[in-house]
Design a protein that fits this description.
The complex is a heterodimer of chains A (348) and B (270).
Chain A (H helix, E strand, L loop, with lengths): L2 H19 L1 H4 L7 H26 L3 H40 L2 H19 L7 H14 L19 H4 L3 H11 L5 H28 L4 H16 L8 H7 L4 H21 L9 H13 L1 H22 L2 H10 L1 H15 L1
Helix pairs in contact in A: 1-3, 1-4, 3-4, 3-9, 3-13, 4-8, 5-9, 5-10, 6-8, 9-10, 9-12, 11-12, 12-13, 12-14, 13-14, 13-16, 14-15, 14-16
Chain B lengths: L1 H15 L4 H15 L4 H18 L1 H11 L13 H12 L6 H23 L15 H13 L8 E3 L1 H10 L17 H10 L7 H10 L4 E5 L7 H5 L2 E7 L2 E6 L11 E3 L1
Parallel strand pairs in B: 1-2, 3-5
Antiparallel strand pairs in B: 2-4, 3-4
Helix pairs in contact in B: 2-5, 7-8, 9-10
Classes of the chains: A mainly alpha (348), B alpha/beta (270).
Chain lengths: 348, 270
């Protein structure tokens, strides 16, 4: 298939579908923004992918079956989102145009810097030997039309072995699904050229939301905040372990995306939902965020409830509401369930 | 207890490396506590920061978390610290917006220059390089895989033995190529595979005779191994492998089976 068509398909599945499929979750908010829709869309799609991949793995179905199921579910959600969006389209367009007009010069400088980062990530390569598992799992899945049936290191069958560290956090399979949805793009091209700019944008949208929360009425400071986050990230090469470094050099890997975008997103959602008397977003988003973290990395299964747990503890001290605590624990359910399964697999 | 604390400190130092971001974070926290502590948003973020640091540094919680995620990656707990948002928050609070329009425009120009400098510093950090292949794996890996595919007999399964540098990316580039082991022997099924790995990754001079012996036992029809410039192919040929090309310092060898006596065409990449 033509490279241009594949590129358009990638834009559709990685930008358009997330942007509209997030709308139904925010439709009760009176003034949601496109950025919020995009982030919510990714929360939903990642949570959907986690559940679908685990089910299809347990049923031992093929990759193409998973691709069809995911495409149908994500497509249906996007369609529903468009229907919800219809009522708000004019308001959103007006909001965007007023935001553009009211944006500070610092915000435009930040955008230039972020755009340069996205270009660097899309054009240049970073070699990371961890790809020998993460990306090779996707290439192997595509090659064999299977899910975790073959060892990505060798190409030999797993037979009865379960790759327990990875099977509960199957982000490489999500990569394989996206590569198939993009007209059969090579998974390594999707991982190294398409994912990085998209996820970089996603990551900065999270930082923008954090800035927006802290400086709701002050566009000037929002711009400064976004610029500072982007500038600080440029100097993250002081060690190979910090979250910003993962964001700048290998954001296509699930654990990097977790550290760069989803833990900060969880931090933001916890502030906006758990720590607010009147939550700014539905609790469902916190549940979706927890599930999305589980998809990205086995580390997410532990780190997500840690972040949520800290805020739940603060909220308990502040509001003394057992109902809020219960809701919070329910939002951590995916991590707790998968954690138990992980321990069970470890012992088995 | 002492051991546990020293291990926590080691992980802390590992995370921050040779940078000074930990001091920047400390300075930001001190500034926020000192001057902006009455703001609710600041209180929340500082309390969270403190709690996250406690989880990391307390030997009891550290022991529990370490049991769950593994000792070697304990530093990943520090990912829950909102380092960039806290420093950026302090920086933003510091920048008062009571400027004249002229000053504001001047500052915007300064920010724009800073953006270019930042991007330039990022580009020259040594983390990025250009590749000739779209998959963005090291070019020598792509060239070795292409060379192997060009010389493979139709319908036969390709099994390639290569050193760690090449093996890590072969199946990222071309998943139709099978391997007896992956990165750091991962995925190897038996002792022979691991022995082959250690032989092929050994210090020069490599024992090419043994490499071919174990490659044969693992039914590898291709071997990619580092060879010296004046390499004598005799040892490999006597074991049934012929040189089909070189890619940088790597020689790519193909097994000559009984049906195909003539070696494949010579190719040199890189």
């Amino acid at each position: 298939m033509n490279l241009l068509i594949k590129g358009i398909l990638a834009g559709f599945w990685l930008v358009v579908v997330p942007a509209v499929s997030g709308v139904p979750f925010l439709r009760k908010n009176s003034r949601y923004t496109p950025g919020e829709c995009f982030l919510t869309g990714y929360l939903f799609l990642f949570a959907l992918a986690e559940i679908m991949i685990l089910i299809t793995y347990c049923l031992r179905t093929s990759l193409h079956t998973l691709v069809r199921c995911y495409a149908a579910a994500a497509g249906a959600a996007a369609l529903w989102g468009i229907l919800c969006l219809k009522k708000q389209a004019r308001r959103l367009a007006a909001d965007i145009s007023s935001s553009v007009r009211g944006a500070s010069p610092y915000f435009w400088c930040a955008l230039i810097l972020i755009f340069m980062q996205m270009c660097i990530l899309a054009v240049y390569a970073h070699f990371d030997a961890d790809d020998s598992f993460y990306v090779a799992t996707a290439t192997t899945a595509v090659q064999t039309d299977s899910i975790f049936a073959f060892n990505p290191y060798t190409g030999l069958s797993y037979r009865n072995y379960v790759p327990r560290r990875y099977v509960l956090s199957p982000f490489p399979i999500f990569l394989a699904v996206v590569s198939q949805l993009c007209g059969g793009f090579h998974p390594a091209i999707v991982a190294h050229t398409i994912f990085p700019p998209v996820f970089q944008m996603l990551s900065y949208m999270v930082f923008y939301q954090i800035g927006r929360r802290w400086y709701r009425e002050d566009s000037m400071r929002r711009g400064v905040f976004l610029f500072l986050t982007a500038a600080l990230n440029c100097f993250s090469a002081y060690s190979v372990y910090n979250a910003a470094n993962f964001q700048m050099i290998r954001i296509w890997q699930g654990k990097a995306l977790l550290a760069a975008a989803f833990l900060p997103l969880l931090f933001f959602l916890s502030l906006s939902i758990v720590m607010e008397e009147q939550p700014e977003y539905p609790w469902t988003l916190l549940f979706l965020a927890n599930t999305a973290c589980c998809l990205l990395s086995s580390m997410g299964i532990l780190l997500a409830p840690l972040v949520q747990g800290i805020f739940l503890l603060f909220a308990l001290l502040r509001f003394r509401s057992p109902k809020r605590l219960l809701k919070g624990i329910l939002c951590c359910a995916p991590s707790l369930i998968l954690g138990v399964i992980y321990v069970f697999l470890l012992k088995a | 207890m002492k051991e546990s604390i020293s291990w926590i400190v080691t992980n802390w130092n590992l995370y921050w490396g040779d940078g000074s971001f930990q001091y920047l974070l400390l300075a930001a926290a001190v500034y926020l506590i000192g001057w902006k502590r009455k703001k609710r948003s600041v209180q929340q973020v500082l309390l969270y920061l403190l709690a996250a640091l406690f989880l990391f540094a307390c030997p009891l919680t550290a022991a529990v978390i370490q049991k769950c995620i593994g000792e070697s990656v304990y530093w990943r707990i520090l990912w829950i610290l909102p380092v960039t948002p806290v420093i950026a928050l302090a920086g933003t609070e510091l920048s008062e917006d009571r400027h004249t329009d002229f000053l504001r425009s001047g500052l915007a120009v300064v920010f724009l220059c800073a953006a270019v400098i930042c991007a330039n510093s990022l580009l020259h950090s040594g983390n990025y390089s250009k590749t000739a292949n779209r998959q963005k794996v090291p070019d020598e890996v792509a060239n070795i895989c292409n060379l192997v595919q060009e010389n493979a007999d139709e319908g036969t399964t390709i099994r390639l033995a290569a050193d760690d540098h090449i093996a890590a990316y072969v199946r990222v580039y071309d998943p139709s190529i099978l391997m007896p082991y992956g990165r750091r022997t991962k995925g190897s099924l038996d002792r022979d595979s691991r022995l082959l790995y250690y032989l092929i990754n050994g210090d020069p001079p490599l024992h090419y005779g043994l490499i071919t012996k174990f490659a044969l036992s693992k039914r590898c029809n291709f071997i990619s191994v580092a060879i010296p410039e004046d390499f004598n192919t005799g040892a490999m040929e006597s074991m049934g492998y012929t040189l089909i090309g070189t890619v940088n310092q790597y020689g790519v060898f193909k097994q000559i089976d009984s049906k195909q006596e003539t070696p494949g065409k010579e190719n040199t990449y890189g």
